[in-house]
Amino acid sequence: MEEKAKFRFAVMGAGHISHKFCDAVSLIDECEITAIASRDLKKARKVAHKYGIAAAYDSYEQMLIDEKPDAVYISVTTNAHYDLAMLCMAHDTPILCEKAMFRSACEAEDVFRHSKEQGIFAMEAMWSLFLPNIRQARQWIEEGKIGDITLGRFDIGFQAEKNPKNRFYNPDLGGGACYDILVYAYDILTWLIGQPVQGTSVQAVYTNDGVDKTDIVQLEFPDCMGVLTATFEANLGDQEQAVVYGSRGKIVIPHAHHGKECCLYVEGEEPVTWKDDKTINGFVYEIQEVMSCIERGEIESSTVPHEMTMRTSLLFDKIYE
Hints:
Dihydrodipicolinate Reductase, domain 2; 2 domains; alpha/beta
């Protein structure tokens, strides 16, 4: 019996996050990274050498032409996501793109239109939605452990270095709390609550360069409310968490965008803490999702559908209107 060929990824960008992706791929037998490209060829070669990647490029397009990968992981800064996503569409190449995938609804609409018209898979790398503790929390909600949902909160924040050259505060690199961390809060909380968002109100504080550094978002659902806080101005520490309140109790998820546990509090019962002691690299799950979707001929993930990314893109438009 002929051995099934490995799924071939190529990587665009050689920064910090690309290393985590390469580490994750190394944990999956069914796939490999065959090429990496960066505007800085030295960086691309360094990552290629570290992870045993056969080819390194300083041209994203040439990599697509030469390698014809099964999918591309876009790991560059947010400002370049749209152009590289469109480049991949032009070369009929499926994409997994780092969050925030786009800076505006206009960008999202354009790429997803091409995805649908050409039948090319596209997904935002919202890896947190695949984490076992987040899945467990949603299972508790669906099982009715906390009764009817009454309120949801998600607080996320750290003190970003106040250096206009880094990506956090640099408008030219797609800087802003909304793109970097609010996207986690919105996607995770709305996914957990599982109800359509019927209304959104936003308050934001901006730098002198017009970059959002603190955001507070109020969400209106059919049966409850949600509140999101995202900031580059404060280390929230133990207060960085998602909490879903219900008529019978609550679920608390510490550091919900990257944590490994969730806690169930039901009135009249002992608290339950569920811990994930198996995950080595949380990117593994989203990579497996991409492979499965593409092998089934799908153009979007049911967990991170195009519509989810459209919603966050519309939220960004509100923050920067």
